[in-house]
Amino acid sequence: MEDSYEYMARFFEGSLQELSARNPHIKTRFKRLDETSFSAFIYDSGERVAECSVYYGEGTFGSPGIAYSHSGDVRRNSFNESLSVVDNGYTLQLKPLGMQIFDDRCGDTLSQQGAAEYYWGLFIRPLQE
Question: Fewer C-beta within 10 Å: the chain N or C terminus?
């Protein structure tokens, strides 16, 4: 779980840098709040258009997992999605809780990259509307 969280944090940080480098009107902010949580923000022409926080450990309602919230304010008693570690007999993977029913991957098990892309997709959805 720790490795998957770290992978996700690096994925978000790099993706935010790339997003702002390719779009001059877009500014981004990535902030590690502690070893188990980070927040990310996207601003379009000075207006906040997307924000999220990701954390793992205590506070995911007794269920160990990596939680995602559409709020940049990490409150460990609230989340919009959570990934738990599952063992399919061959490898460890991440499985969404399924709270994002509009996403067709919500029932699938995901690799670290797949999980990072899943949360990134939730995060940038406001930019795609």
Answer: C
